[in-house]
Amino acid sequence: MSQADLQGKFVWHELMTPDAQAAADFYARVLPWTTEASTVPGYTLWMSGMAGVAGLMGQPQAVRDSGTPPSWLVYIAAPDVDATVEAAQRLGGKVLKSPTDIPGIGRFAVLSDPQGAAFAVFMPTMAAPDGAKPPIGRFSWHELATVDPQNALAFYAQLFGWTRGPAHDMGAGGLYQIIEHAGAQIGGVHVLQDPSKPPHWLSYVRVGRLDEAVAAVQAHGGRVLRGPHVVPGGDRVAHVMDPQGGTIALHEPPAAAVAQPAAVRRPAAPGKAKRAARPPARRAAKPAAKRAPAKKKPAAKAVAKRSPKRAAKRAAKPAARRAAKPAAKRAPARKAAAKRRPVRKSRAAARSRPKKSARRAAPRRARRR
């Protein structure tokens, strides 16, 4: 990527704190970071995998004595650091550290915008720009809290070419103005809510599980200042403070939809599988006669041959009357014949036995004699 393409990108982050060793231990327990010594004396690198993501250094004694709290500093790429410093001064910014070379690393300067938020401009010798979706452990968002969002955004727009994106109404908090760079959303600007704090930049680090990271912050001496809560777009964020007083934000993007494995089912019969594979419209258009069970009624000629009188009688009966007749009365002729046969047998057996009245009358006649 050329230097011109780096213009306006957030390329580095740095924490200055009174206890660098304690800060290194704390962040290594909260984020997937490790530490590595740098070529600059007294400067420690934070690594995410094989990539350097931030720097750590102790506050000089003069800074400690002034009561300056620990703070994270954002570095914004500028192809010509000296020209950017001059432009910032013309637009009302201040120089906190004049342009300086770091051998083998790059050139930088520290400035403040007209409202007082500190930032650095930096042109690295070698830089790997962040992608559109930074992986876990990388910085993913940057937020400016200031007393005058409109003028602050105008300052950065002229300095780095940033543009306005969508704005979200936060109610009492005012508008949250999205910042865009080269068509991508990189951060936001909003009104400073706490008047006891100076205008400042807040950097967000992407984490895999926000709740676990927040629990780690509390377990190792840090504080949760805000959240976790959901912001527009579905992301979850939390603002936290390390034990020394440095403030950073944690960011968990919306969970990606994971395809669930299909339930294991027994293979369907060939006929069912074929019907299931058929489009619904085709199944609906199929004639009902083909979908009905394969039950066939006897032809009219066959019925007439078996019982001519019954067939004639059935033909003479109105169709509506036949339809209204209960199913039990319309049983097949075979069942009715089977019911009648036992009755005829019982009558024949009854004829062969003497009548009950005759048996009773015989003894009476014998007594009379």
Architecture overview:
This protein has helices spanning about 5, 20-30, 60-65, 80-90, 150-160, 210-220, 270-275, 280-285, 290, 300-305, 310-315, 320-325, 335-350, 355-369, and strands spanning about 10-15, 35, 45-50, 50-60, 70-75, 95-100, 105-110, 120-125, 140-145, 165-170, 175-180, 185-190, 200-205, 225-230, 235-240, 245-250. It is of the alpha+beta class and about 375 residues long. It has a domain at about 5-250: 2,3-Dihydroxybiphenyl 1,2-Dioxygenase, domain 1 (Roll). It has an 8-stranded mixed beta sheet. A hairpin with a 3-residue loop joins strand 6 and strand 7. Helix 10 crosses helix 11. The longest helix has 20 residues, at about 335-350. The protein is globular, with a radius of gyration of 46 Å.
Provide key terms for this protein.
globular; 14 helices; 8-stranded mixed β-sheet; 16 strands; alpha+beta; 2,3-Dihydroxybiphenyl 1,2-Dioxygenase, domain 1; disordered C terminus; 369 residues
Q: Secondary structure elements and their pairing?
A:
Layout: H1 3-6, E1 10-17, H2 20-30, E2 34-37, E3 43-48, E4 51-58, H3 61-65, E5 71-77, H4 81-90, E6 94-102, E7 106-112, E8 118-124, E9 139-146, H5 149-160, E10 163-169, E11 175-181, E12 184-191, E13 200-206, H6 210-219, E14 223-230, E15 236-241, E16 247-252, H7 270-277, H8 280-285, H9 288-291, H10 300-306, H11 308-316, H12 319-324, H13 333-352, H14 356-368
Parallel strand pairs: 1-4, 5-8, 9-12, 13-16
Antiparallel strand pairs: 1-5, 2-3, 3-4, 6-7, 7-8, 9-13, 10-11, 11-12, 14-15, 15-16
Helix pairs in contact: 10-11
